[in-house]
Amino acid sequence: MPNPRERREQLEHLMVSEHGVLADNSRGRAIQEAPDEVRTCFQRDIDRITHSKSFRRLKHKTQVFLQPEGDHYRTRLTHTLEVTRIARTISRALMLNEDLTEAIGLGHDLGHTPFGHAGERALNDICSVGFRHYEQSLRVVDRLEKSGKGLNLCVETRMGILNHTVGAADDTLEATVVRLSDRVAYINHDVDDAIRAGILTAGDIPEDVCVKLGERHSTRIDSIIRDIIENSTEGGIRMSAEMAEAVGLFHDFLFERVYRNPKAKGEEAKVSNILGSIWEYYIKNPVKLPDDYRRIADEEGIERAVCDYVSGMTDDYAVYQFSNIFIPAAWQVK
After folding, report:
1. Backbone φ/ψ region at 72: left (φ over 0), alpha (ψ -120 to 50), beta
2. C-beta of residue 273 within 8 angstroms of C-beta of residue 119
3. Segment 104-139, tens digit of pLDDT
4. Any idea which fold 39-268 has?
5. How far apart are CA 47 and CA 53, in angstroms?
């Protein structure tokens, strides 16, 4: 009698279209493992990611606004969850592999820096080989998690994580869905947060965007999702030309009014100083690094180790480290 995993794999042959990835056709893992009796290989990837330290740290990493006052602003974790839900909805409608889609969605930003893209820019300027969060996300699951053992994820999950920003010619359709869903999520929730912060009002959103996508947050997301589903045929994932134009207009509006807004981004100049100072300190004092990162320094060089350590910090931990290293502690005369 087939076990639960085998039954699920049999169901996938009925539920997943010819354009999706079947779990029992996965290209496998770098280190071969015996199959689990209950979970498919992609379900195991989901569990490994959600139980990882890097996933838990996402709740304390900035999405757009640094140190916002309020409980309802997005973090890198809530962004990840919104991306994943959008991607699963699309994958289900298109009869793709929902588990693979979820694994890629949950893992796509594991390598993001503290302080959002301001932190990424800071590390890119500091590190001699540059820094790109999507490459770091792959490094997190391959090299850094589990004290250097990595998560040993499936090839399809790993490549979806790596290519979630720029894409690749051999992407699975599940990876393409996550890449589109990433943009759908952030342009909508970043506007929502900007309105909450008083950077924008609902009336500032361009009329063409409101006409084509809708005036409410949920309506806009629903419009884009439906358009992707209706226009993704013949094994391709795409928006209609009209929707792509509207989404592009929405994206450009965000860059002009939010991502480059001095009021929204006024504190970001401090990020380079915080991360740059921490970076310089550990470059000069490698013995101060935690044990796992000292091993990386021995094997791959001090710059690689410091990059891994700093990029993995949460916002609060980076501020704590900066304060602990560079600000004198209070003391009292007894």
Report:
1. alpha
2. no
3. 999 999 999 999 999 999 999 999 999 999 999 999
4. Hypothetical protein af1432 (1.10.3210)
5. 12
